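Mods, move this if it's the wrong board.
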Amino acid sequence: MPDIDISIHNPSQQQYILDFEVVKSTILAISLREQITFGYINIVFMENNEHTQLNIKHLNHDFATDILTFDLSDTEYINTDLYINIDVARANAQEYNDTLSKELYRLIIHGVLHMSGYKDKNPEQQKQMRNLEDYYLKVSCET
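Not the wrong board. Structure tokens:
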């Protein structure tokens, strides 16, 4: 299995704490368990306004959301850009009494699971997605 090229960008300049090695090992665990070959994954943290503008531009959704996942795959590897709304992540962490770090790990896992073929359009799919997020948080992320 090739090495996965993972990059994290923070144009929002907001403070957060993530361990890059935890991010990488979590993505590798998903890749191995789901038998998915990733080429690269770009993770971009954005503020609410810019993230919502991206949502409008690409999905025609005029509302804030926590993550946008874009499939940029080629024939050999699965490639993706994950755009995370750090403001929504912070609000979600506060609402669920979690740390911002744990919520950011969850969102990264969520995006990678989407790229692994999982959907969250109905309650059954949402439950499966949440269970997998919890599983990978438990086995991979020390939050």
